[in-house]
Write a structure and sequence with these properties.
Blueprint: E1 3-10, H1 14-27, E2 32-37, H2 41-47, H3 53-61, E3 64-69, H4 74-84, E4 87-95, E5 108-114, E6 124-126, E7 132-134, H5 140-154, E8 160-164, H6 172-186, E9 191-195, H7 196-205, E10 212-215, H8 217-231, E11 238-243, E12 247-251, H9 268-280, H10 284-300, H11 313-323
Parallel strand pairs: 1-2, 1-3, 3-12, 5-10, 8-9, 8-10
Antiparallel strand pairs: 4-5, 4-11, 6-7, 11-12
Helix pairs in contact: 1-9, 1-11, 5-6, 7-8, 9-10, 10-11
The structure holds glycylglycylglycine (GGG).
Residues 69-70, 74, 78, 221, 250-251, 253-254 line the site of glycylglycylglycine.
Length: 324
């Protein structure tokens, strides 16, 4: 069966790592059709719109989307794109690979981040010259939907950690915590609760205490970046935004303006996101092959500067393709 993949590079190193991941996917010789869409800072400058309607529709209609990064226009691009694919959870694995000089080589975590609300729901206002406000939205229904997904995701009797700050944000994180724990109890899935500030310390000191982490939107964004610091950097973290009928895959990193345009960005996070895309579309064997190829190159192949090497994006991408 043929699948249509929407490909949206966005800005900065998105324009370097997305073509690399598409090269890897094309080398597998599957029946995938790639359709390109524009979005991001440069598109906004040229057209006034960071996410043209046709790009939104492209993502909504495709079987899956591969997205790079957005800079200043992140709120106008990433959030609507996640909405276009109706994604309610952002899966962010943070795993230390052999051969990478990781701060905590024993790290193997998966963040299940609520993906529709919290402080990312867009209700922000300037009320006076001195005052800006932000409304934090938490619904029982979105929290329950995330929890239902988490219960199926763990499916191994392991349970998961619920990370929140309900001792301070009693109404919003209280609602989130209560809904997630209730759904887990109904499914007979064990949970342990951790306040998000304490989690930040504990995961740095001893990441093996944790496995799957279920958390609100902003906490998931920040804490997964923190976990990236434990495993060798943001160049290694992929992500999947999953909806009921659609999905979007993107590296956790942003546009990296300091290195954009030089051809030296690490393509691993995007290639691993492409592996998650393959798995989502049912190509589990090819997905495993891509992840194994990445692992092999990380262990013994060329690496980019963020991992202490001097190889460029193209050399690392070619090394991955050679391993497939
Ligand atoms: N590739 C994802 C990206 O552009 N990340 C930058 C960013 O600002 N992300 C915010 C988010 O993931 O919600």
């Amino acid at each position: 069966m043929s699948h249509t993949i929407a490909v949206i590079e966005g800005d900065g190193i998105g324009q370097e790592v997305i073509p690399a991941a598409v090269d890897v996917l094309e080398s597998l010789d599957l029946d995938l059709e790639f359709v390109e869409g524009d979005a991001g800072d440069a598109v906004k400058e040229a057209t006034g719109e960071a996410l043209p309607q046709e790009t939104y529709d492209l993502a909504a209609d495709a079987d899956a989307t591969l997205f790079g990064a957005a800079g200043e226009t992140a709120a106008d691009v990433i959030l609507p794109l996640r909405d276009a694919v109706d994604s309610f959870v952002n899966i962010r694995p943070a795993k230390a690979y052999p051969g990478v000089d990781a701060v905590r080589p024993e790290t193997d975590l998966v963040f299940l981040r609520e993906n529709t609300e919290g402080v990312y729901s867009g209700h922000e206002d300037d009320l006076s010259e001195d005052l800006s406000t932000l409304t934090r939205v938490v619904t029982t229904s979105a929290s329950e939907k995330l929890a239902e997904f988490a219960c199926e995701y763990v499916d191994d009797g392991e349970g998961f950690s619920v990370v929140h700050k309900a001792n301070v944000m009693r109404k919003t994180d209280g609602r989130f915590r209560d809904a997630v724990v209730r759904v887990a109890d109904e499914h007979g899935v064990d949970t342990d609760e951790v306040l998000m500030d304490a989690f930040a310390t504990r995961v740095c000191l001893d990441p093996e205490q944790f496995d799957t982490i279920v958390c609100p939107n902003l906490a998931g964004d920040v804490l997964s970046d923190l976990a990236a610091g434990l495993v060798g950097g943001l160049g290694l973290l992929p992500s999947a935004n999953i909806g009921d009928d659609n999905a979007l895959f993107e590296p956790v990193h942003g546009t990296a303006p300091d290195i954009a345009g030089q051809g030296v960005a690490n393509p691993m996070a995007t290639v691993l996101s492409a592996a998650m895309l393959l798995n989502h579309l049912g190509y589990s064997e090819e997905s495993d092959r891509v992840e194994t190829a990445v692992e092999t190159v990380l262990a013994e192949g060329p690496r980019t500067a963020d991992l202490g090497g001097d190889a460029d994006t193209e050399a690392v991408t070619q090394a991955i393709i050679n391993e497939l």
